[in-house]
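Hi W.,

Here's what went into the run:
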Amino acid sequence: MADGELPDNPARPVAVDVAGWPPSLADFAEPARSAVPPEVWDFINGGSGTETTLTANRTALDRVAVLPRVLTGVDRPRTEASLLDRPQAMPVAVAPMAYQRLVHPDGEPALAAAAGAAGVPYVASTLSSTPIEEVAAAGDQVWFQLYWLRDRGMVADLLDRAQAAGCSALMVTVDVPVLGRRLRDVRNGFALPPHVTTANLPGGRDDLAHQGTPGVSAVPSGAVFAPALGWADLEWLRGRTPLPLLVKGVLDPRDAVRAAEIGVDAVVVSNHGGRQLDGAPATATVLPEVVAAVGNGCEVLLDSGVRGGVDVLRALALGAAGVLVGRPMLWALAAGGRAGAEAALALLAAELRDALALTGCADPAEARHLRTMTGS
Ligand SMILES: Cc1cc2nc3c(=O)[nH]c(=O)nc-3n(C[C@H](O)[C@H](O)[C@H](O)COP(=O)(O)O)c2cc1C
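Here's what came out:
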């Protein structure tokens, strides 16, 4: 779809009454904090190492000032946009996040259903605590996130299952050759409780993740991940699936260009929410260079630190086609299950609509032409 063109048949979100819920997406943090045990709060919210990158993600977004346009005659902006050539209610998807039953008993199906009702994609993690078939049945547009496993047969099996379940895109995560050192989990000796399992993997593959040891994080065990993923693997994957393919965890523009040359449909500029390399740059800092390098080669999405509609606007103005939202959606799930997640997404849409109105934009495509300034 050409830049600036609106989808013919935008996804229509279900109307949600946000009365009684926190006043902003970011404000779901507090009720979530009281809803989950402290070690689960740390698992969700922590980053790796000294959490420099975790903090930098927010600082960098906060430093992006967007120049509003005035006298544009826009009355009520539309939030609809296209991602992967498909109409969406807004340029947002729910990021893949492992083990959602940790924060609420309804887990992944509840969040997938909320995303479906809001008219945005839900990305189901390989490390889901609900099988992909159940998640796909609960949602509308469910994308499958693939972690590359040591056993290629298991990778092929997961791909087949995701496709048979009706997943409409595949997102391969490439920034976890090893797990980042998440010191909060190490200090807490964090392990999965018995009721939370790695439901997509054959029985027994996640046993280690349940074995709590003081001073050691058990999650995830890492025993099943293949560390040495290469470009040939991405080419294999491109040839193996007819689904739109996204590569998540790209920061260097050279990698983004190479992925586009292989024929991926989108790259996600992500540092895994500051959970992998501590010392990696904030995503808002590298996004413009990636967008410039990739050109029309593929779509560019951003995640890591998005906490509200103004952040979506900032990402669009920096050239992204859209964003993934991570932790805030777990906060909303923890705070109120499916209803909480629906309210959070309705608030995000309202925040984005206001941000568009305040910058004189009729829709997200126009926001991509806004100018930005980086200041303190
Ligand atoms: C609790 C948690 C679990 C995550 N699990 C996965 C995962 O299974 N696969 C993946 O690709 N990314 C995973 N991520 C990273 C997110 O997809 C996303 O990149 C990150 O959360 C975005 O940053 P934000 O939380 O600041 O929005 C996880 C993040 C969190 C917080």
